[in-house]
Specification:
42% of the residues lie in helices and 15% in strands. The protein is an alpha/beta fold. The protein starts with 7 loop residues before the first strand and ends in a 5-residue tail after the last helix. The mean pLDDT is 95. Bound molecules: nicotinamide-adenine-dinucleotide. Nicotinamide-adenine-dinucleotide (NAD) binds next to helix 4 and helix 5.
Amino acid sequence: MLTYEHEQVTYFADPAIGLRAIVAIHSTVLGPALGGVRFWHYAREEDARTDALRLSQAMTMKAAVAGLAQGGGKAVVFWDDPHAPRSDAFLRSLGRWIDVLGGRYLAAEDVGASQRDMDGIARETPWVTGVDPARGGSGDPSPVTAFGVLHGMRAACVAAFGSGELAGRRVVVQGAGHVGACLARLLVDAGSHVAIADIDADKARAVGVPVLASDEVMSADCDVFAPCALGGVLTRASAAALRCAVVCGAANNQLLDDDAADALEARGIVYAPDYVVNAGGIINIAQEWAPGGYDADRAYAETARIADTTGRVLATAREERITPARAADELARRRIAAAGRGPYRPGEPSAMRDALVARHDVFKD
Ligand code: NAD
């Protein structure tokens, strides 16, 4: 906890139902800690804990840079079969445990989770987002995330080429999942030449743009490389192999370490920090407690501002001669320090709290 500067890490178990979970609350200085629930097979408890610690810290930074009044958290749930659906009883048990945290942690969708999971959790607690749009939720965040990445990409292209125009740009997308496929289509609409790769070739083909082999994607000649699969793809070695001017994509934790950031910098490749450009998902969720309730048009308008944020981070990096990743981290830390507050206490009044409590009735039995 000290390594990553966490406020609270809680282990939950409900042996009767087979539930084991860890909720990591990194920071609630800016507001309750929002973060996805990850259902995953972990070989060791230690791996799950490390995942929760790293991912929740990134959520704090993402929310702070996006200017949102919320902190960062993450729930990891031990789940052996990625294709097996959760039972209602399992989700209710998880919901009760999330409820115990009294609103310090707000659940959301993550890898392996679906809106159905969020609706199941919502039967037991108001502290959950991304629920059914018909009942006040913001639904699937992926299209908004892709839209935000597109805007971040425009700003990164301004830094690299002096123009944010995407028409005619050659963009290679790694990962044809929820965000990658959507981003590819947005880029085609913007007039870019897009190619895509996925370890699942059928998924890549379904997008309708030229397909690359997944082991060649990181050395393909292009203007922009967009990582939209897993984290850790940017290493010193992969940075040396890249043949692009810009890296800008949705995947979380793209940089394996600081070395990778330095290697990109040394090669003059503009790196748009992942958590700056992929914040569309949480910007979308924050609209659930905006005055008047969730509104998709407003969510997209707010998300478009990622272009300005990315531009500012890249400009700071240039002026201060630091990597963009470091510039983003410093911006987040400054915002948290400026709040001058301690941790969020359950029951503290806020518009967010009122909105989530008010809608909870529609999920109760
Ligand atoms: P997803 O699971 O729908 O898609 C990921 C895709 O990547 C899958 O199709 C998978 O087959 C493919 N893939 C995995 N390894 C690959 C490899 N080595 N080469 C090529 N393809 C590979 O996930 P998603 O929701 O589209 O999210 C993509 C990334 O963006 C993740 O890192 C996620 O954490 C991040 N992200 C997503 C959102 C969101 O709104 N969904 C928001 C912020 C960040």
